[in-house]
Amino acid sequence: MLLPYYQDVLTEAGCDEAGRGCLAGPVFAAAVILPRNFRHPLLNDSKQMKESDRMKVRKVIEKKALAFAVASIDNEEIDRINILKASFKAMHEALARLSLQPQMILIDGNRFHPYGNIPHTCIIQGDGKYASIAAASILAKTYRDEYMHRLHEQFPHYGWRENKGYPTRFHRDAIRTHGDTPYHRRTFRLLPDEQLSLDGGEEEKW
């Protein structure tokens, strides 16, 4: 059961990102301020939800939220500044786009670069604990998935409609066969070491 809020005085924005571990495409982040009485039976960590349920809940979030925003940082900037800084930058941009300024920020994870003078709290696996972070995780993931679906139309060989740019064996086999694309993150290890490839030890979940 998700908790509705972290504290009961300040207006909270939940913030989360999607696509940090991908080999291709942007990292997306979302910030969401929910009403304190917001409830939805399907709301959960986006990774634990079916795609159809994520889309259902996204529509409710976008209708009922006091404010929400989504931002992304592309693969070229990820390569320039590194993925951690890019994730923080995407979160900052999402927070800056909110129509209502929060008084406190809840971050999924264990690290964050402060946003202005607004206090924040980092919560490990927060997307499975607090409603606003779960809502942000749903927006970040669904917006990013839609983006990767569009890229799939340009580069169908890589399976991005299914793997969304994550390092599956299919994706890496496609890189080995077809090379990389302008959307791949070249500072990431696109192909594993040969021994890891033979052992199958580099396969990752997505």
TrEMBL record:
Catalytic activity: Endonucleolytic cleavage to 5'-phosphomonoester
Keyword Nuclease listed: yes
Name used for this protein in its record: Ribonuclease HII
PANTHER family hit by this protein: RIBONUCLEASE H2 SUBUNIT A (PTHR10954), RIBONUCLEASE HII (PTHR10954:SF18)
Keywords: Cytoplasm, Endonuclease, Hydrolase, Manganese, Metal-binding, Nuclease
Residues reported to bind a divalent metal cation: D16, E17, D108
Compartments in which it is found: Cytoplasm
Domain RNase H type-2: 10-200
Organism from which the protein derives: Chitinophaga alhagiae
Pfam family, one: RNase_HII
Cofactor, free-text remark: Manganese or magnesium. Binds 1 divalent metal ion per monomer in the absence of substrate. May bind a second metal ion after substrate binding.
Main location: cytoplasm
Lineage: Bacteria, Pseudomonadati, Bacteroidota, Chitinophagia, Chitinophagales
Entry function: Endonuclease that specifically degrades the RNA of RNA-DNA hybrids.
EC number(s) per entry: 3.1.26.4
Origin superkingdom: Bacteria
NCBIfam families linked to this entry: PRK00015.1-3
Family: Belongs to the RNase HII family.
Cofactor: Mg(2+); Mn(2+)
PROSITE patterns attached to this UniProt entry: RNASE_H_2 (PS51975)
